[in-house]
Amino acid sequence: MTENITSGGGDSRADAGVSALQGRTGAGAPAETRGKTTIADGVVAKIAGMAAREVPGIYGLGAGMARAFGAVRERVPGAGGGVTRGVKVEVGERQTAVDLDVVVEYGVSIVEVAGGARTNVISAVERMTGLEVVEVNIAVDDVHLPDEEEGAEPAEGRVR
User: pLDDT digit string (tens) for 36-93?
Assistant: First the structure.
């Protein structure tokens, strides 16, 4: 039994960025298909971001300035994590597209890392949302060198 994916209801601003999985209604329909499920763009972005970060060879996500601001934001209590940093998604009625800005580790094959990221993101998003992923575009913005440490903390605190 498959569900039909429909938009959340027209051009309403409240429905922007939300996909809906529409089930059959009525007493004759199986319980798991009664009603609809909506999936926000942010949910797809989080899934894609987590899946991309799981790929060996990816150091981080986000372009240079986004990573710098994200590092500052992560130090502020209650500011939230940067799971969606470097991830942009478009969610349609039945399909979604993902754009990733990645930083790879020095020495890895960028082609293999990109292929692994595409495979992992497509698998995770399709499995968790039921949406068809039509494309995963990857922009490699930087290579992390072994001797580079962004915002490295000193081994010992300044105050005792």
Answer: 888 999 999 999 999 999 999 999 999 755 445 455 545 555 555 588 999 999 999 8
β-bridge partners, 60:
103
* Phi (first) and psi of residue 129, to 5 degrees: -115, -25
Pull the structure tokens for residue 90. 């478009």
Residue 47: how many CA atoms within 13 Å on its side-chain side?
A: 26
User: 45 with 36: CB under 8 angstroms?
Assistant: no
Compute the distance between CA of residue 57 and CA of residue 120 in angstroms, rounded to an integer.
Answer: 13
Neighbours of 66 (CB within 10 A): 16
**Spatial separation of the C-alpha atoms in residues 18 and 8, rounded to whole Å:** 6
Angstrom distance (rounded) from CA 46 to CA 69? 18
Question: CA–CA separation, 113 vs 107, rounded Å?
Answer: 11
E strand residue ranges, the chain: 4-7, 18-22, 36-40, 58-61, 87-91, 95-105, 132-144
Task: Calculate the CA dihedral of residues 103, 149, 105, 120 and round it to 10 degrees.
Answer: -60
* Tokens matching residue 72: 């500052």
